[in-house]
Amino acid sequence: MRPVIAASIFGNRLGSADMKSRPPDSAETLRAAYRDTLTNVGALADELDSAGWERPTGCPGWNVHDIVAHVCALESILAGRGQPDHQVPEGLTYIRNAPGAFMEIGVDYRRPWPVERLLAELHELTELRVSELDQIRDDQLDDEVQGLFGMSPRRSLLAIRIHDVWSHEQDIRRAVARPGGLDGPAGTFARDFMLRQLARTVQAAVAPPAGTTVRLELTGPGGATRWIAFDGERGWVGTSGDHAGVRLRMDLPTLTVLCCGRDDADAPGRVSIDGDAGVARRMIASFAFTP
Length: 291
Known about the structure:
Blueprint: H1 16-20, H2 27-46, H3 50-54, H4 64-78, H5 98-110, H6 115-133, E1 144-146, E2 151-153, H7 154-176, H8 185-206, E3 213-219, E4 224-230, E5 235-238, E6 246-251, H9 252-259, E7 272-275, H10 277-285
Parallel strand pairs: 3-6
Antiparallel strand pairs: 1-2, 3-4, 4-5, 6-7
Helix pairs in contact: 2-6, 2-7, 2-8, 4-5, 4-6, 4-7, 7-8, 8-9
């Protein structure tokens, strides 16, 4: 199972270099993106038929009902309701690590719930969480708050949660063939979040020589062109650059599948490569940053 908690930030904390490389997001930016994706998940869920709820997703072991249950489970914890006292069955082969086991508790607890009960909880939590977000001010974003795996700055926790919920929104959309949500506040926020995280994982896994530059062109809705420059210690994402030794072209859904480690064997083949193909393929293989 691959719940979307960046492997390098189990403590719910973005690296300090990330914040030095770009202006910090405002409370309104974070609020708008969070509201956008939570609302989208609710709208999608409202329109599902019985077959849609049962469709498998790119998260091993989870169908659409499980994805919605996962969103509810984590939002419930962050709303202060805690984790249910529930024992997960043994032998679930898709659970590979401690975060996966933690995530499965809330999902398995809700697995027997009828759709109506799950929808009611989702809409209740959406209203509650959006109301809480409306109270957050810019000067509170660096406050240390309780996250899912420890204390972290509020801005880091919100950024991770936006990406997590949005990535699961995309899981639902792929499962029921309802594309969308790519160029709204959450989609563009998640896109840039993924690019910063993949720059870290590529540096760690591939160790490109200092001075290596990658031009990454994202096409279609939510598209953008970014340059990732490697200095020998980490990758830095910018909106301009030149002399890229590797050029990659894909759409945002493909980037999402690759970064989130979803089951999609065809995804690497949807990436157009110019430049050093060997290095490019090694980079693409290291994009996934979720456990």
